[in-house]
Amino acid sequence: MWTYCSCGERHWGRYGAAGLLLTDPARTGVVLQKRSRMVHHGGTWSVPGGAIEGLEGPVRAALREAHEEAGIEAEGIDVVDTILGTDHGEWTYTYVLAEAERPADPRLGTSWEADHTAWVDLDRVATRRLHPGLRADWPGLLTTLEDCDGRTA
Ligand SMILES: [Zn+2]
């Protein structure tokens, strides 16, 4: 369901949306997916995610969408934090920062919503054709990712 927002845009999700910002403990990269032509801003790259359903909240929504869209199993990842991205009052986008080992040969799924899912090196993210929301939020997210570099669990 679309939210027709006071910013003049429409956003997907009655209760806002959330995405999984999945990185590795060494913070070398993040998981991005190329959005299929079937969805809003098709052909751009974004994090796996989607609309929050009812009262599930951003963490459950991000993990559910990442599983649906890319076959990412919640068991294999540690949720570290939530980061508020776009905040338009009646509509928000929340990034769920999580860590998982970066496999040498990742096997990430596809779905009707995502043509391709891949680990992308941090310094290569900005070179992709990003979804406008991620394009706007990426500099702040990159700072967050780099700030946490080297912390001990
Ligand atoms: Zn808005």
Fold and architecture overview:
The strands form three sheets. The protein has a four-stranded mixed sheet, sandwiched between helices. It has a single domain (6-142), classed as Nucleoside Triphosphate Pyrophosphohydrolase. By secondary structure, it is an alpha+beta fold. It has helices at residues 57-70, 132-147; strands at 2-4, 10-12, 17-23, 29-35, 45-46, 49-51, 78-87, 92-99, 114-121. The chain binds zinc ion. Residues 5, 7, 9, 11, 88, 91 line the site of zinc ion.
Quick synopsis:
The chain has helices at 57-70, 132-147, and strands spanning 2-4, 10-12, 17-23, 29-35, 45-46, 49-51, 78-87, 92-99, 114-121.
Question: Largest sheet, described in full?
Answer: 4 strands, mixed
CATH top-level class: Alpha Beta
How far is the N terminus from the C terminus?
A: 39 Å
Strand order of the main beta sheet, please?
Answer: 6-3-8-7
How do the SSEs run, as a string of H and E? EEEEEEHEEEH
Q: What fold name stands as the CATH topology?
A: Nucleoside Triphosphate Pyrophosphohydrolase
The shape is globular
Q: State the helix count.
A: 2
- CATH arch. level architecture: Alpha-Beta Complex
List the helices and strands and how they pair.
Layout: E1 2-4, E2 10-12, E3 17-23, E4 29-35, E5 45-46, E6 49-51, H1 57-70, E7 78-87, E8 92-99, E9 114-121, H2 132-147
Parallel strand pairs: 3-8
Antiparallel strand pairs: 1-2, 3-6, 4-5, 4-9, 7-8
